[in-house]
Amino acid sequence: MTNISKTPEVQALFDRAAGIDQSGGNPRLKAIVRDLLGALGEIVEKHDITESEFWNALKFMQDGAGEFGLIVPGIGIEHFLDLHMDAKDAEAGIAGGTPRTIEGPLYVAGAPLVDGDLSRTNDVNLTTDPDDAETLTMAGRIIGPDGEPVKDAVLHVWHANSKGFYSHFDPTGAQSEFNNRRRIKIGPDGRYAFRSKMPRGYSCPPGGATEKLMHALGRHGDRPAHVHFFVEAPGYRTLTTQINFGDDPHAHDDFAFGTREGLLPVPDRSGGNPHIEFDFQLQRARTGIDLAFSERPRAEA
Ligand code: MBD
Ligand code: FE
């Protein structure tokens, strides 16, 4: 096979296509598009991708565009972004605390803000729709780098119901808007506790683009049961994480690569219902960016 992608003519084509010879435009975007084109050229050549294959792949992406939020974790890229941020932290000497892990595509902004100060309330309940699953309870502390209680924290929690569906994205239409979604305002002692209904693991929509891709790769599209969190508090770095149930059959076989050491608690069932004790340890914020959420576009209700 004659490889032409590295010839001066093709390199010049990609330069011009990325606007490298133009003074206008966004320099960072130009540099990234230039490298994407170069990499694509090499892949076309390496695998001798045919015209039919190329345009059918494009059609797959067009038709599956609504599932990109699932495909990205499914092909490990969302986890890779975590690894990249971890590597940058390590290089900057930033370490410690609860590990980050992928947000996933199913957060909805605007969930009810409820009082979680345990000196005032002892019943924070996330599940407001009927669900005959067993009751899950979770409790623990939100602490800082020195083990100090974090003041004025807000714990955002979201998870699937016992059918594996998230409110707002439930294809059965069965759930109310914020079922299994709350923002919990934590008291000054940093302690949290809530009850909910035990979620079931998530599976990609049957017949959808993500599932098709997974099957074509010889894989499945299933996640273990899990609970997502954002933890935010003044002076601390906002944490995006989740716990996955350590005794779930998919605990070590998560299609989205969201499971991590330190985030796989096994529920204590000695009291009948599953209970998890889990502490969140935050890093101190160094910059304004540390305090903010990522600018990932999110659903809002
Ligand atoms: C989920 O519930 C999820 O958390 C991720 C990361 C991907 C698909 C569904
Ligand atoms: Fe999820």
What string gives the helices and strands in order? HHHHHEEEEEEHEEEEHE
Ligands bound here?
3-methylcatechol, fe (iii) ion
Looking at CATH, which topology of the largest domain would you report? Protocatechuate 3,4-Dioxygenase, subunit A
CATH structural class of the largest domain? Mainly Beta
Helix content: 25-40%
Query: Strand-residue fraction?
Result: 15-25%
The Rg value, from CA coordinates, equals 22 Å
Distance from N terminus to C terminus (CA atoms, Å) equals 54 Å
The largest sheet, given as strand count, sense and whether it forms a barrel, is:
5 strands, mixed
Low-confidence region ranges = none
Number of domains: 2
Annotated CATH architecture of the largest domain: Sandwich
* Strand order across the largest sheet: 2-5-4-7-8
Name the quaternary structure. single chain
Write down the overall geometry: globular
Instruction: Give the number of DSSP strands.
Output: 11
Class based on secondary structure composition and strand pairing: alpha/beta
Average of per-residue pLDDT values: 97
**How many DSSP H or I helices?**
7
SSE inventory with pairings:
Layout: H1 8-17, H2 27-46, H3 51-63, H4 68-74, H5 77-91, E1 108-109, E2 113-116, E3 135-143, E4 154-159, E5 181-186, E6 191-197, H6 209-216, E7 226-232, E8 239-244, E9 275-277, E10 280-281, H7 288-291, E11 299-300
Parallel strand pairs: 1-11, 2-5, 3-9, 3-10
Antiparallel strand pairs: 3-6, 4-5, 4-7, 7-8
Helix pairs in contact: 4-6
The protein binds 3-methylcatechol and fe (iii) ion.
